[in-house]
């Protein structure tokens, strides 16, 4: 009976992931034309205790190949206790041709990041808003590609890709594989016209749409999800105006965690928002992914007690491994253009990691940036 249940879950899981692989192919890589830049952007960057990361982000802003008079940057300090503000002020003095503003955050909800974006929105001078994170680096043509996409499409919200800049160690590679699976899922879901996921480190939308959707109202008590909940609200109201921009020059790079506890807390924070999804497809996919990983964990025990043969368990594991590889390899070919080998150790550890994160996100507390949050 246990084996039959696992096989059914595997069949559903395989169908859903293969559907995402198909969807990934349907999103074509965008090729910009030679239109002159004309879109004015307000870039909003919430930050807290980021003095080590801000210099790289701010330098990448300075290096943008885009008319500076079309750029506004609003930095929102979420009660930093380090020298982040001084880093910003020093950069501002050296880049006075870029319109920048520094705000202090206001604690209004259980989500500091949503508070920060909401704090910046009323003073944003331009209709097109871009959110990114303080530990990111943007590419030189980032805004140029986004502007060109806007000029060529009737769109009011754009999701685009985020990837880790990793070192050659197993922990970073594990995180990169995890991120690639998320990016593959994101692009695939757009391809099958069921978008439900994006990343706030590279998220673009109009101020008009943000206000019409009521901003973050309805999920402002959930500590994360400034990106996915807003996306899901937009998809319900204007599905044809929510797009994915697939172009490597529009990709934002961020840093993986070096601390295991911080990594675990980050993933718990991400997983905690899934219970607030408005998309039935997203909820079903999340449940099946969890059940698939739980099946492998329980399958190990069933194999030990002799209820499942080793050969059968290995076939189930191999099928999941190959299905996952198809999606992750698609994302890798687009984002990294490197030869991809999924380490066997990562594939063995991942089901245990996913189950622990999933269960803990439902019942436990988590910390982030020195603060503790309840589910």
Structure in words:
With 375 residues, the protein is α/β, with parallel strands linked by helices. It has a domain of 210 residues: Spore Coat Polysaccharide Biosynthesis Protein SpsA, Chain A. It has twelve helices and twelve strands. The strands form three sheets. Strands 3-2-1-4-8-6-9 form a seven-stranded mixed sheet, with helices on both faces. Helix 1 crosses helix 10 and helix 1 packs parallel to helix 11. The longest helix has 26 residues. It is globular, with a radius of gyration of 21 Å. The mean pLDDT is 91.
Write the layout of secondary structure elements.
Elements: H1 2-26, E1 41-47, H2 54-62, E2 71-77, H3 84-94, E3 99-104, H4 112-120, E4 128-131, E5 136-138, H5 142-152, E6 157-159, E7 162-164, H6 170-191, E8 203-206, H7 207-212, H8 228-237, E9 242-244, E10 252-254, H9 260-272, H10 280-304, H11 310-335, H12 344-363, E11 366-368, E12 371-373
Parallel strand pairs: 1-2, 1-4, 2-3, 6-9, 7-10
Antiparallel strand pairs: 4-8, 5-10, 6-8, 11-12
Helix pairs in contact: 1-6, 1-10, 1-11, 2-3, 6-11, 9-12, 10-11, 10-12
How many individual helices?
Answer: 12
* DSSP E strands, number: 12
Give the averaged pLDDT, no decimals. Answer: 91
Q: Work out the strand percent.
A: 5-15%
- Gyration radius, rounded: 21 Å
Q: CATH homologous superfamily name of one domain? A: Spore Coat Polysaccharide Biosynthesis Protein SpsA, Chain A
Query: Span between N and C termini?
Result: 34 Å
Give a concise summary.
With 375 residues, this protein is an alpha/beta fold. 50% of the residues lie in helices and 13% in strands. 43% of the residues are buried.
